[in-house]
Amino acid sequence: MAHDGATDPRFTYVNECALQCFKYPRDSFIGMPSRFSASELDRAQRQVLLEQVTANGIAEGYSGWRVDANNQPFMIYAGVVWTLLNSQGQACGQAALFWPDEQRIGVVD
């Protein structure tokens, strides 16, 4: 999944695994402010992660709570978040990879 580089970033890309986890239709997910991927209680922790990525270009090994379209919490594991660069080498957003099942980290079906 990925979001743009706006002050209040919006999702620009989502794969099928993330859609299943977040339970949104693709058309609703794309363009949604990415802060809504975490509950209000977990947004501060998420923001710290995003600031680490902005400062360092990447963060690895992140696990944390997210919330689906029905406001039901779920955990993500072994997350990697990195800065996206445009053709001029300037930051234009961030992308993330995570695993929804701690027992299947690294397994691709």
Automatic annotation (TrEMBL):
Superkingdom assignment: Bacteria
Signal peptide bounds: none
Protein's organism: Pseudomonas syringae pv. aceris
Protein name: MEKHLA domain protein
Domain MEKHLA, first and last residues per copy: 1-98
Residue runs in coiled coils: none
InterPro entries in the record: MEKHLA, PAS-like_dom_sf
Segments crossing the lipid bilayer: none
Source organism phylogeny: Bacteria, Pseudomonadati, Pseudomonadota, Gammaproteobacteria, Pseudomonadales
